[in-house]
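From the pipeline queue, job 12 of 40. The input is one protein chain; the requested action is below.

Action: predict structure.
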Amino acid sequence: MGDFDRQANLRELLDELRVELSGYMTYRLRLFKLDAFEKGGIALSYLVYGLIVFILFLIILFFLLFGIAFLIGDIMGNNSVGFGILFLASALVLIIVVAMKKRIRRAVLMKAISLMRKIDSNEEE
């Protein structure tokens, strides 16, 4: 009988351990999900903020370029010439950006990685 009691106690202990472990894993999974949601939210907030700044920058650049085109047009005596010169300058910048695609992509990737590390280090504090 003593051996049977020890086996029964061992089974009860293992069942309790299984229930405890299952609960622990459930809580760890929930914690992981919450952590992922928090990191995703922080990254999304940086992304939205960057997008807003970028859009405002584009609007300012648009008006600035129009002003420069009209200024060049006044200097040359014809607005079409001013817009043509500005178009050529913009096309040159576009060609340079396309030629430097790998460098730009690498720089953006490194910035994103450093941002995620910064988010991760802020959470550990």
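Job complete. Residues 58 and 79 are 22 Å apart (CA to CA).
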